[in-house]
Amino acid sequence: MEANLLQRKRTRNIRKMLKDILEQSRSLPWKIGNKILPCSSPLIMGIVNVTPDSFFDGGTHATPDAAYEHAVSLLQQGADILDIGGESSRPGSTPVSEQEEMDRVCPVVESLAQLQNISEDLDNPGHRDFFISVDTTKAKVASECMRLGAHIINDISACAMDPEMPSTVTRTGASVVLNHMRGNFGTMQADFKPYENVVQEVENELLAQAKKLLDLGVEREKICLDPGIGFGKTVQDNIDLMKSLEDFLKDDFPVLIGTSRKSYIGKMAGLDHSDRLIPTITAGIIATLDGVSCIRVHDVKETKESLLYLEALKSHGPV
Question: Distance of CA 191 to CAs 153, 187, 232, 266, Å?
Answer without folding.
Answer: 27, 5, 8, 21
